[in-house]
Every structure is written in C-alpha cells, then in structure tokens.
Amino acid sequence: MRPNSRKRCVYQVVELDGVRYAIVRESVLRAVCRQAGVQAQPQVAQSSDPEASATELDDERLARRLVQRRKRTGLTQAALARRAGIRVETLNRVERGKTTPDFSTVRKLVNAMNEAESELATDSLVSAARGKE
Amino acid sequence: MPTTMTQEQARLRLCELAATQASVDAREVTPDTDFFVDLNFDSLDTVEYTMMIEEEFEVTIPDERADNVRTPADALAMLWPLLS
C-alpha cells in the first residue's frame, strides 16, 4: 500500500497535566483495535463532580436504610407504596438509589412504616396475651 | 413542652435531639453543627429529626420549611414562631 493511499485518521488532541490525549471516534478506535488484534475494553467514566457523587452516595445509603426498615415491618414494596400513597414505581426507584426523594415522600414512607411497626407491636402483644389465657 | 421554655432551652433540646438522631454524644452538637456535613444526616434522618421535634414540642412543621433546615440554629428559627 502506498503511503498516500492510506486512509486518514483525524483526531483532536487535549493536554492535561502535561500529558497529551487523543480524542477519536469510538468506532475508529474499535476498528484500529480490531485490525491490531487488540480487544477494546471501554470503561464508563465515573462522575468527577464531588457534589453529584455525594448525592449518589446519599441516595444509596437512604435506599439501603429504607429497604432494611421496610423489611423489618414485613411490608412488600407494593404494600408500603399503597400505605404511603405513592406509586410503587417511585418506591422501587428510591429503593434502588435511582432517584432522590423529596422531603414529603420520605415523610409519607416513614409515617407508613411507623404505623406498620405499631400494628406489628400490637399484634405481638395480643398474641402474647392470648398465650397466657 | 413546658410553657416556660426559653429560646436557650429550646436550642439546647434541638441539639440533643440531633445528637440522638445521629447517635453521637450531645456535646458534639452545637447550634451551628451542619447536619449533613458534620453528622452525616441523609434525608431519612432529616425527616425523623423533624418528627422528633414535632413530638417533643407538640407542633406541626410544614414539609417545605423542614426541608431547609441544616443546623439546630435553623431548626430553632423554624420552630420558635410556631411556639409563639
């Protein structure tokens, strides 16, 4: 193949901390890797915004705590959503850490779980009292 | 709530409630302690703290006002007019 018949690869260059990085279309990089017999392994970059990362961590922590609390009450997602008056899809997203619930939604959930816990406690007392009869 | 409670007593109680919610020693919480930065509160803690205040002081706190509280001093500023 003559040099002047080669396909051209146009790319942009950015320099960060003294290191030059080439920005090429992913399809081009994949084609080059394929020709070179190299397996391309893309990784999705994590968010570098500390505030966004903190929110994600908060959502995950909240999700974990809500799931633990709901399981203690013995309620399913659907039952808790119904008691709290929110959509089950919303609760599902909250419990997977995919959305940040507003104050009002969390309050509805806490109220519903408190009620369920009170009912459980009452049921236990009634059962215990019947056992003594 | 005792009817004779002063602002200083209410401030102190709000700090104690925040410490209880965060499971830390009450001496670690001052009126300017940031719930999210210093006590690692999440939104569940915020709601539970608000509900503790409602029970303790026998008031109803609107969601939109509770949502802006970040410190015991903020909580007092929100609470005091409701007690008057």
Care to describe what's here?
- The complex is a heterodimer of chains A (133) and B (84).
- With 133 residues, chain A is mainly alpha-helical.
- Chain A contains five helices and two strands; from the N terminus they run ββααααα.
- The longest helix of chain A has 30 residues.
- The model of chain A has no long low-confidence stretch (mean pLDDT 82).
- The two termini of chain B are 12 Å apart.
- In chain B, α1 packs across α2 and α1 crosses α4.
- The mean pLDDT of chain B is 93.
- The longest helix of chain B has 16 residues.
- Chain B has four helices and no strands.
- Classes of the chains: A mainly alpha (133), B mainly alpha (84).
Question: What's this, in brief?
Answer:
Chain A has 133 residues and is mainly α. Chain A contains five helices and two strands; from the N terminus they run E-E-H-H-H-H-H. Chain A is elongated and about 95 Å long.
Topology:
The complex is a heterodimer of chains A (133) and B (84).
Chain A: E1 12-16, E2 19-23, H1 26-36, H2 50-73, H3 77-84, H4 88-95, H5 103-132
Antiparallel strand pairs in A: 1-2
Helix pairs in contact in A: 2-5, 3-4, 3-5
Chain B: H1 7-22, H2 43-57, H3 63-66, H4 72-83
Helix pairs in contact in B: 1-2, 1-4
